């Protein structure tokens, strides 16, 4: 009788450990949905245009993405944007892809990007969004 009890406990413990391991493996396989930073940037004639500062921002911004695995997916302005409904932006659109919302936020608030963010803010009028992508992809 004691042998059956010990065997039952061993089987129960094995099943419990197996279920716990399966949950851990499943949790590791669940991938966060991608995220996209979308910027609509208008050239603001009311703000001082500084071509040297704009050039510096254009050179430095891509460098800030590497640590967060961000990639430019689109950078277009003018005739390269086709408005299907409503008016096209007067400046340009930028789309940057990230592995997750956390990576996108991490980039936006990173010391590297904080160091150059004011350049864009002082020379353009911008709207910046983080959009969570479809996790099924």
Brief characterization of the structure:
The protein has helices at 2-29, 51-60, 101-108, 111-123, and strands spanning 35-43, 71-77, 92-98, 124-132.
Structure characterization notes:
- With 137 residues, this protein is of the alpha+beta class.
- Helix content is 43%, strand content 23%.
- The protein has a 4-stranded antiparallel sheet with strand order 2-3-1-4.
- It is elongated, with a radius of gyration of 25 Å.
- The mean pLDDT is 83.
Labels describing this entry:
single chain, 137 residues, four-stranded antiparallel β-sheet, 4 helices, 4 strands, 23% strand, elongated
Number of helices: 4
Number of DSSP strands?
4
Are there runs of 5+ residues with pLDDT below 50, and where? none
Overall geometry comes to elongated
Strand portion: 15-25%
Average pLDDT works out at 83
**Main β-sheet description:** 4 strands, antiparallel
Spatial arrangement of strands, main beta sheet: 2-3-1-4
Order of helices and strands: HEHEEHHE
The assigned structural class equals alpha+beta
Separation of the first and last Cα atoms: 54 Å
- The value of Rg in angstroms is 25 Å
Helix content: 40-55%
